[in-house]
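thought: fold this chain, then report.
action: predict
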Amino acid sequence: MKVRRSQARVTIITGAFLPLPPGPGGAVEKMWCRLAEEFACRGWAVKMVSARDVSDPPLPMDNGVKHSTIPRFRRRGMLVNVVCDLIYSLRAARLAERGEVVITNTLWLPALLAIRGFGREVIVDVQRMPKGQLRVYRRSSFRANTIAVEKAILNELPGRARQITVIPNPIDAKTFTPSVGNPGNGSTTVIYAGRVHPEKGIHLLVHAFQKIRCVHTNWRLVVVGPTESEHGGGGNKYVEELKRLGESNIEFVGAIWDPSLLAKTLRSGSIFCYPSLAERGETFGVAVAEAMACGLIPVVSDLECFRDFIRDGVTGFVFDHRRDDAVDQLAQTLVRAAVQGESGDAMRDAAIRQARELDYGIIAGRFVNWMSMLDQ
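observation:
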């Protein structure tokens, strides 16, 4: 099937557990909601299928996007989640039509659509490192958000390179913009934004911050993100542990769902630290790119997924989180970032330019070009 411009149609089917914005959905739901609008602006007929509570009002057609919803499930244990995904996917499969592109990140749906005879017009959105499930998606195409994910897909599907395209996750470069002047007023503020979970390495950051504060008493640390397990957080026990490690200059502000408010919070800092330890779970780091767009110098752990947009010493700094002295390494790297920020704007400007290449309009154009070429 060649998708022609005059009849281009796409259905985006998100997962079984989280609703679309403006509610407290996930990053994937937010991304596809915005990309759907961008596709519609480019002349595509766009339908979104998403999970939603039965008691919530129906989603109207918005910015040219038609919405269909399926009752959503709450996350539980892994086995229960797999069964819930199957039920949801069976319902969603009925809403997919021949002759359109279908994009999904659900577990079961690509296999179900293959049974129905859908071919490469099914795009599997691979946002996390695959765990063997891709081998059953024999007739699909695959979108990887980083080169690291592309390599992982090829490990499961050798010989399928032509069916894989790397397209980064987008950011809103019109909302996430740099501040004018020095927001720190003489102090150094380090910001983390993301899920407050042990795999994100926030405890390393808190320990490193304590070391820095022994010398630099004017430093502040702001931790932004959900702590509740329902939203991927580590729960109250982990947060209390962090607070015991910390002190008065560490501020936990909770989740900020509103992008404009998040951007304002980021602009109050000078360094953004994302010390993730998730070797198999981390695949991109949208929060890092958003912070870069706001003019913060990023400091990240040495995960392959960050290498697509962070060059150590050029657009940010990388520390080795695998070393026994990882806390000392992180503390030293944060100080280097602070010195870099004081010495000029070269790295800040490089980070901003890099992040702007991820704007929704640019990324949507790459998706449209690829979807238009499917099955030529």
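thought: worth noting. The two ends are 6 Å apart (CA to CA).
final: tokens above.
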